[in-house]
Design goal:
78 residues; 4 helices; 81% helix; elongated
């Protein structure tokens, strides 16, 4: 797996939505690539930081906010 391929799959990985083969390839790549581990960490930190905001009453539902954020991550990796 290349860094570009990982960047396209990182949100699916965080969602637990990858098939077993793709997840294995991603984890193997992460083991040997500090830059991609940093990318994954940044995504995890963003989700963690935004989690409290998702629990606040809002005219936009938390799942919709989460989906929009994940879509933005997907788009930014292209």
């Amino acid at each position: 797996m290349t860094c570009s391929e990982l960047a396209e799959l990182v949100t699916a990985y965080l969602d637990g939505a990858l098939d077993e083969r793709s997840e294995t390839l991603l984890v193997v790549h992460l083991d040997g690539c500090p830059a991609c581990r940093t990318l994954l960490d940044q995504h995890q930190q963003t989700v963690r930081l935004l989690a409290p905001a998702a629990s606040e009453p809002s005219p936009v539902s938390a799942p919709a906010c989460r989906d929009a954020l994940l879509a933005a991550f997907r788009d930014s990796s292209r």
